[in-house]
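Module 6 notes. Inverse folding takes a fixed backbone as the condition and produces residue identities as the prediction. Think of it as a translation problem where the source language is geometry and the target language is the twenty amino acids. Below is one complete input and output pair. Work through it position by position during the lab.
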């Protein structure tokens, strides 16, 4: 792809976004239903997007979540201008000949804000200590952000869409993952797929290291999925069910520990804090299930 073509596509959709300095923002708002759903819910919740780095996001983005949630403001950098300057200096140049442009993670951070606005301020969960309930609330918010990024990749079916999506996501669009998601949506439907992905990330964000076959079946039951009998039909569903394990374990540990310590004063070891059966908690608590799947509604209503 040429820089000039990327810029032309970006500019063609500038009228659909209030964040024209974010590469591909207007295009994704129009072409990607998950991106649009999160943006609309964030805007309705009063979330603002700003080039003011009020929370040192450019220095330590993983330490900025607390300030972002309190301010309902998401920082970003203008990553369009650098491409304009490159095109001005060497017209007609190929995109591959410029250094990678820093991504903006507006959808991920906006999803955090949406979850924070929709979840009860205090998540009262029968059988969980106050510290564990706080950690679970944080895990639910992180899981919505993760789920948004994974499900949004399904729509990225052109080179331009994939490029813009990669510039707005932690993880890159991956063909095998897209295929598994599409096959699962065809098999069990959009709502159930979103719930499966969300629960997979809930397990990951409460520091599960594996998702075995029994856990898959329990997760499917919670999500309202009847597992197909044929192994071939289950392959895509099983891959999607284990999607959360793609999150780097060290990343999960460090971000959870930092957020709980500095935002909530919780010094507990994160493994001890998460040493309980989160699926059992969801199985026995219908109110918590409704709360958790209410977050999924943000995404399923986009289908």
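Target side of the pair, the amino acids:
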């Amino acid at each position: 792809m040429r820089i000039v073509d990327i810029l032309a596509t970006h500019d063609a959709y500038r009228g659909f976004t209030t964040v024209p300095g974010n590469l591909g923002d207007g295009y994704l708002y129009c072409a990607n239903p998950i991106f649009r759903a999160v943006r609309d819910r964030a805007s309705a919740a009063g979330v603002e997007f700003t080039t003011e780095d009020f929370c040192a996001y450019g220095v330590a983005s993983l330490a900025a979540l607390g300030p972002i949630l309190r301010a309902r403001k998401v920082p970003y950098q203008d990553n369009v201008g650098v491409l304009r300057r490159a095109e001005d200096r060497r017209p007609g140049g190929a995109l591959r000949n410029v250094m990678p442009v820093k991504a903006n993670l507006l959808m991920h951070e906006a999803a955090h804000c949406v979850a924070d606005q929709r979840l009860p301020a205090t998540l009262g969960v029968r059988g969980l200590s106050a510290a564990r309930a706080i950690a679970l609330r944080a895990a639910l918010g992180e899981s919505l952000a993760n789920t948004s990024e994974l499900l949004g990749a399904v729509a990225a079916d052109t080179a331009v869409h994939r490029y813009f999506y990669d510039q707005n996501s932690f993880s890159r669009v991956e063909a095998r993952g897209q295929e598994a998601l599409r096959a699962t949506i065809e098999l069990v439907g959009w709502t159930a797929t979103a719930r499966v992905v969300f629960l997979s990330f809930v397990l990951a964000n409460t520091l599960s290291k594996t998702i075995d076959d029994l856990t898959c079946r329990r997760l499917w039951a919670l999500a309202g999925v009847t597992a197909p009998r044929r192994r071939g039909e289950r392959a895509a569903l099983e891959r999607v069910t284990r999607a959360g394990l793609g999150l780097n374990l060290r990343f999960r540990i460090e971000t959870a520990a930092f957020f709980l310590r500095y935002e909530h004063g919780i010094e507990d070891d994160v493994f001890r804090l998460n040493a309980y059966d989160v699926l059992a908690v969801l199985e026995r608590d219908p109110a918590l299930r409704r709360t958790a799947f209410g977050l999924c509604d943000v995404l399923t209503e986009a289908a």
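Reference fact for the lab report: The first helix runs from residue 3 to 12.
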